[in-house]
């Protein structure tokens, strides 16, 4: 599927719309909408509505007929990582956003609401955006795409993300699918491959990577003829996206001659890892999955050699071991006359939150504990200072070396008229 964007003989399963919220959500939505194909009359197959408080951030996105940008007047300078401000901005302009969304997404099969968890606008508005779409006819055709922050983005970012994750977890069974993008995972994978790259190169890579993962799933379910009797088609894809819980995407590629079907070690361990590691996030309990689908594509000559009953049976056995209670386990194989490799895609839905969320909770607690220790030490030092005898300090301290020894000077600096009321330790709170 390496040449997916330059081929004219492909088609798409679903018409996606992307509602981007905040800088992170807008960046991903924009990248998805600017995917350009060679499919006749469908060169720009997706649409995006970009919503942000910070008007400067919105200017970064070029104008396109399939992209609309909505600023939120009164909040042009941004939300400053304050989720209350982000939520208030969306609520204040909900009627305007609602009108734009219902008109712009009228022909869309499925809407992705995208928010980068951790900031102000995206994190603060994501719940309100879902409520708006649910109340306006999109209940059965919208899902969430959320990004998890990296470890080093600061306690405010992590706590903001956890605040909204807690609410989403409580409503998990009432929502459609939730696709998690773990920025720490993508960052780690990228820095291993390109340690000398810049952070801007990483951001460009990650947004394109996310968009490509979703686009390829949308193509593979619609473009090829099945060769083994079963087809995971467009309706099945939509049904999977409508399933409550988290969804995980897996992808694996082999060179045409890499698999020896008589030796399962040449393909089965990698297949299992591709599901467990995922493309965008990992750490799921796959035994809790409700649906699992595998789509495999190869050149006709390769497909004839590889997609035997024994091969399919080994794939089915692996799927069964990972998700024994899934109600649907679809295995579909296709041939692609223009295929350059063997591509295997998996979709697993109905999952719970990944282990990464637990890691973020532990990170937040660790930061909080360290902060409390530091402030406890500071309080101890202040208490010790308060215990000193003033006469002893005045007798031993030279005023030229200690500004606190001369209360007149210190009081004048703090604009205190009555020096007798001056508390020298109050300066520590200024």
UniProtKB/TrEMBL annotation:
InterPro entries membership: Tubulin/FtsZ_GTPase_sf, Tubulin_FtsZ_GTPase, TubZ_C
Listed SUPFAM superfamilies: Tubulin nucleotide-binding domain-like
Family annotation (SMART domains): Tubulin
Residues in Tubulin/FtsZ GTPase domain copies: 15-229
A Pfam match? TubZ_C
Name by which UniProt lists this protein:
Plasmid replication protein
- What is the scientific name of the source organism? Paenibacillus solisilvae
Query: Species lineage, top-down?
Result: Bacteria, Bacillati, Bacillota, Bacilli, Bacillales
